[in-house]
């Protein structure tokens, strides 16, 4: 009986579960790549090669999604905000503020609010391609300074892959 329960559970965890970020690991999403911070887990069930990268740490989720061809950060932001609202996880509000990463990528950032979580939506545009980065944490476990530092480091590591 134990085998009938344990084997499917272990197989499911090995295929769908979360995998710890490895030192030096780099994740590529279309024309973008970034280096996830140690201590986070790659959510293999929600992540899809070249489509979305989802990292989790406790009650915090860091999701990167390529937006395809975009002519401006403002247009890309509006599209990403609509997509986020359509998920039902919350909505993006407030006026977006300009942001520039350590590698010189530019974009905008605005707060995300919801019934169970809060965070930010950042959109970067480079080389005519857009990237949406959402960071959310459940209200029961707000962001810590260490997580905020990890997020800044990961956002600053985003770069355009040479084609």
Structure notes:
- With 163 residues, the chain is α+β, with helices and mostly antiparallel strands.
- It has one domain: Protein Transport Mog1p, Chain A.
- The chain contains 3 helices and 12 strands.
- It has helices spanning 2-16, 73-86, 145-157; strands at 18-20, 27-29, 32-34, 41-43, 53-57, 60-69, 91-92, 97-100, 106-113, 117-126, 129-138, 159-160.
- The strands form 2 sheets. Strands 1, 4, 5, 6, 7, 8, 9, 10 and 11 form a 9-stranded antiparallel sheet that branches. The chain has a 3-stranded antiparallel sheet with strand order 2-3-12.
- A hairpin with a 5-residue loop joins strand 8 and strand 9.
- The radius of gyration is 17 Å and the shape is globular.
CATH superfamily: Mog1/PsbP, alpha/beta/alpha sandwich
- DSSP strand tally: 12
Number of domains: 1
Beta fraction: 35-45%
| Major sheet size, sense and barrel closure | 9 strands, antiparallel
- Taken in chain order, the helices and strands follow as HEEEEEEHEEEEEHE
Structural class call reads alpha+beta
Taking pLDDT < 50 over at least 5 consecutive residues as the criterion, the unreliable ranges are 4-15
CATH topology: Protein Transport Mog1p, Chain A
Tell me the radius of gyration. Answer: 17 Å
Query: For the residues shown, what is the average pLDDT?
Result: 87
- Fraction of residues in H or I helices: 25-40%
CATH second-level architecture: 3-Layer(aba) Sandwich
- In whole angstroms, the N-to-C terminal distance is 53 Å
Query: How would you describe the shape?
Result: globular
Tally of contiguous helical segments: 3
Tell me the name of the CATH class: Alpha Beta
């Amino acid at each position: 009986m134990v085998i009938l329960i344990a084997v499917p559970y272990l197989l499911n965890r090995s295929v769908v579960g979360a995998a710890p970020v490895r030192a030096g690991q780099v994740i590529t999403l279309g024309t973008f790549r970034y280096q996830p911070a140690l201590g986070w887990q790659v959510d293999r069930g929600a992540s899809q090669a070249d489509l979305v990268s989802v990292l989790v740490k406790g009650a915090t989720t860091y999701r990167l999604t390529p937006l395809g061809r975009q002519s401006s950060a403002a247009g890309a932001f509006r599209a990403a905000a609509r997509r986020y609202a359509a998920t039902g996880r919350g909505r993006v509000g407030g006026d977006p503020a300009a942001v520039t990463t350590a590698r010189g990528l530019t974009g905008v950032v605005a707060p995300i609010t919801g019934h169970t979580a809060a965070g930010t939506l950042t959109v970067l545009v480079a080389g005519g391609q857009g990237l949406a980065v959402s960071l959310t944490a459940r209200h029961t476990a707000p962001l810590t300074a260490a997580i905020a530092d990890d997020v800044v480091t990961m956002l600053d590591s985003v770069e355009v892959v040479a084609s």
